[in-house]
Design brief:
Helix content: 25-40%
CATH superfamily of the largest domain: Bira Bifunctional Protein, Domain 2
Bound molecules: histidyl-adenosine monophosphate
Mean pLDDT: 93
Strand order of the largest sheet: 1-5-6-11-10-9-7-8
CATH class of the largest domain: Alpha Beta
CATH topology of the largest domain: BirA Bifunctional Protein, domain 2
Low-confidence stretches: 425-433
Number of helices: 15
Shape: elongated
CATH architecture of the largest domain: 2-Layer Sandwich
Structural class: alpha+beta
């Protein structure tokens, strides 16, 4: 029997996996400059947690969750997103009392969607959540952070889509307007939208069915229904984004696919892309969720980036994200004693965090071993041939300058480090001589 990865999942292989690590490394550097701390939560949670936070009428809960009963009959779900879990962890561990307010996470999420380009059933998200800050400044700050991460991986030309979803008071009025606007079009809506219109009118705006989206031209903008306080908050966010030079476009139809949002909602979309897979990342405020899940009223805001979408955009913009290589040392040997010494030398080098690879050919001639070193992109080759073994020496060859120096075994590490030091020029650039 032949096995393959389940539909909608993939293997992350080099060099893709290396590039993905580099994306996360660069993002983590940015996150540290915003004083975020890492958090990891379980991959599965009680199903009820997601139903209550994301909302029963959403596509995620009604169609896309991987839910199963464990051996004791508990209903569990593979997490479709990170926010609900982080709020649960925040409350369960009393993070508020510890003063922990800024958290970030990187990990797999699971949604049973129809797989296509940019849409998988298991995908990676990098997400952030900030608790206990109601101010518009923090909304602007997270949007800036999302853009800063995109910039750190080399992306250009991205803009933010922005909307305000108001508070429950504004939303009640807006739900009535949506219902009234679509009342005469009910017969042309899909059966799901007819249901949504009854139970959760805002969710109608998520529908991708053409005859429904056609009808949406009748729906007024939510901004007309905002109460005074929500309007003021939204104006401040827009003005702060202007002061931070962050380009944004108002999108009154942006409702996001999760029920917990209040006030600011945003997405960073792939330029020129349309349809459901056009968002690299998105988020917003969710000032009521902590309370809904049993905590004290605690405002919160956050976002998540889809890392596969981010990386595919990096690749389509032709950005080289792979970390500069060129520091590998290849150890070549021609006898059992040579290989044993190579193992000792590699161990000394690795203690200095130098990447080494010992030849695996067991006796291929040195020419072949040098060829293999070249294929692996080694900068230095340390030769432990018969002559060197006899003289307790090592020949160190710089694969770029072709210079070769033979030194006593005790000086091998020093000589190799000297060759590797040439990799970095004073400006920190990779030398190409
Ligand atoms: P979301 O918009 O559902 O938000 O997901 C965030 C990002 O995850 C999307 O913009 C997209 O890049 C990626 N994504 C979603 N579904 C898939 C998929 N099937 N395949 C590949 N990538 C996908 C959230 O999940 C919220 N928890 C964000 C948030 C955090 N809001 C506040 N805090």
């Amino acid at each position: 029997m032949k096995y393959s990865a389940p539909r909608g999942t993939r293997d992350y292989l080099p060099p893709y996996s290396t590039a993905m690590r580099e994306v996360v490394r660069r993002a983590s550097e940015v996150l540290e400059s915003y004083a975020f701390l890492p958090v990891d939560t379980p991959i599965f949670e009680a199903s009820e947690l997601f139903v209550r936070s994301i909302g029963e009428q959403t596509d995620i809960v009604s169609k896309e969750m991987y839910t199963f009963a464990d051996r004791k009959g508990r209903q569990l779900t593979l997490r479709p997103e990170g926010t609900a879990s982080v709020v649960r962890a925040y409350l369960e561990n009393g993070l508020e009392q510890l003063g922990v307010e800024r958290l970030y996470y990187v990990g797999p999420m699971f949604r049973y969607e129809r797989p296509q380009a940019g849409r998988q059933r298991q995908f990676l998200q990098l997400g952030v959540e900030i608790f206990a800050d109601p101010g518009p400044e923090v909304d602007a700050e997270v949007i800036q952070l999302l853009m800063a991460i995109c910039q750190a991986v080399g992306l250009t030309g991205l803009t933010v889509q922005l909307n305000s979803l108001g508070c429950p008071a504004c939303r009640a009025g807006y739900s009535d307007s949506v219902k009234a606007a679509l009342a005469s079009r009910i017969s042309s809506l899909c059966p799901e939208c007819v249901q949504r219109l009854e139970k959760n009118p805002l969710r109608v705006l998520d529908c991708k069915v053409e005859r429904c989206t056609d009808a949406f031209s009748e729906v007024p903008s939510i901004q007309e229904s905002l109460c005074g306080a929500c309007r003021e908050h939204f104006e401040s966010v827009r003005s702060l984004l202007g002061r931070l030079d962050i380009p944004f476009t108002l999108d009154p139809r942006l409702v996001r696919g999760l029920d917990y949002y209040t006030r600011t909602a945003f997405e960073v979309q792939i330029p020129g892309a349309t349809g459901a897979q056009n968002a690299v990342g998105g988020g917003g405020r969710y000032d009521l969720l902590v309370e809904q899940l049993g905590g004290k009223p605690t405002p919160a805001v956050g976002f998540a980036i889809g890392l596969e979408r981010l990386l595919s955009l990096v690749q389509s913009q032709g950005v080289d994200i792979l970390p500069p290589g060129g520091k590998l040392v290849y150890l070549a040997a021609t006898s059992a004693e040579g290989r044993a010494r190579a193992l000792e030398l590699a161990s000394a080098l690795r203690a200095r965090r130098v990447a080494c690879l010992i030849d695996r050919s067991r006796g291929a001639n040195l020419g072949k071993q040098f060829k293999q070193a070249g294929r692996m992109g080694a900068r230095a080759v340390a030769v432990l041939g018969d002559d060197e073994v006899e003289k307790r020496a090592v020949a160190v060859k710089d694969m770029v300058t072709r210079e070769q120096v033979t030194v006593p075994m005790e000086r091998a590490v020093e000589q190799i480090l000297a060759v590797l030091a040439r990799v970095e020029t004073p400006a920190g650039k990779v030398e190409r001589s």
